[in-house]
Design a protein that fits this description.
Elements (H helix, E strand, L loop, with lengths): L2 H19 L7 E4 L1 H11 L1 H12 L4 H16 L5 H18 L6 E7 L15 E5 L2 H13 L4 H10 L8 E7 L5 E6 L10 E8 L3 H4 L6 E6 L5 E5 L5 E6 L4 E6 L2 H4 L6 H18 L3 E8 L7 E9 L14 H7 L2
Antiparallel strand pairs: 1-4, 2-3, 2-4, 5-6, 5-11, 6-7, 7-8, 9-10, 11-12
Helix pairs in contact: 3-4, 4-6
């Protein structure tokens, strides 16, 4: 991964670009870079105040951290973004609309801080993303909210314990087309529970994947043999909730799963095998175990469009179980 691109756009955006360069289908989009984040804080005079508040969080109890982190978030959520930067975001928004053929596309706005998803210190899940954003005003506020999530209580406490500062983990924001999901999920290039490396584990649900990644449902789970790319095990989860787009709020929300989908598999074996083969090859390209988030978009009269929206290295790996050692004398003895 190009180090300059990583420092400017953070891991989510950089790895999305990497997936595209490997020939996979990824959503079109752009990044509001860490340089833009730094420029906004400097122009508003906010960086010095945030540094003082961050330093104060290192002295005191959990209540003090909670209070100060809340104050930092509020400051960032209301910061004035320079007009030149708003204009740049507006031009990028218009470009994206032309690219996807929609003047006001639905967007996924995702935090991409340079300190998250590192192999040694994972910040995964500590920062915010917003799905279903529409319009420039909504987009601009979503960018502020992503920046502000750099000061979530958990993130502040994590950086304090790691001896780091927001200055060393600035926030970029990825802005991409929101893919209309019939089903979505995550796939691991090994079994995250048992540590087996000979399989890909695909977890899925109906609709967008937020209910799954937030741990709100018991997902469908399919295990695909890496070598033969065949399904070796399948479990259908009791999916109580579904993430859908709510036009009245212009956001993806969680609601009750329709009864006819609750206990019905969200993907078939063919799609699971497609995902399994791609994730196996990704592991080879990256040179390490990975997990990826994917979306399946229905296309009339054709196979589902399979779009990859995120990739991460797997930082915590269970030891691979030792294979049994067969002894001929014991086998013969059992048959006497």
């Amino acid at each position: 991964m190009d180090s300059v691109a990583f420092e400017l756009s953070g891991p989510k955006v950089s790895r999305l670009s990497e997936l595209g360069q490997l020939g996979l289908d990824v959503p079109k989009g752009f990044a509001v870079t860490t340089a833009a984040f730094r420029e906004c804080l400097a122009a508003s005079g906010l960086e010095r105040k945030l540094r003082r508040l961050e330093e104060a969080t290192r002295i005191g109890d959990a209540d003090r951290v909670a209070k100060l982190s809340s104050e930092m978030r509020q400051l960032v959520q209301t910061v004035d973004i320079p007009e030149a930067l708003v204009s740049e975001i507006g031009r990028a928004h218009d470009w994206l609309g032309r690219e996807v053929g929609k003047p006001d596309p639905r967007l996924a706005v995702r935090s991409s801080a340079t300190g998250e998803d590192a192999a040694d210190k994972s910040f995964a899940g500590q920062y915010e993303s917003y799905l279903g954003v529409t319009g420039l005003a909504d987009l601009t506020q979503a960018v502020r909210d992503c920046w502000a999530s750099l000061f979530n209580e958990r993130a502040v406490d994590y950086r304090n314990r790691a001896g780091r500062s927001f200055v060393h983990s600035p926030m970029a924001v990825g802005v991409v087309e929101l893919i209309e999901a019939e089903a979505a999920g995550v796939a691991f290039s090994l079994d995250p529970v048992t540590g087996h490396r000979d399989r890909v584990v695909v977890e899925s649900t109906w609709g967008f994947g937020e209910a799954l990644v937030q741990g709100l449902i018991s997902p469908d789970r399919v295990k695909v043999d890496k070598e033969a790319t065949r399904v070796i095990d399948r479990h259908t989860g009791d999916k109580l909730q579904i993430s859908v787009f709510d036009s009245s709020r212009s956001r993806v929300i969680e609601t009750a799963m329709p009864p006819d989908k609750r206990a019905r598999p969200s993907i078939d074996d063919t799609l699971a095998q497609r995902i399994g083969g791609i994730v196996r090859d990704l592991e080879k390209s990256v040179g390490a175990p990975v997990d990826v988030e994917w979306v399946a978009e229905r296309r009339e009269g054709a196979a589902a469009r399979l779009v990859f929206v995120q990739m991460r290295p797997i930082s915590t790996i269970a030891p691979e179980p030792e294979l049994p050692r067969w002894r001929a004398d014991k086998i013969a003895e059992s048959w006497r």
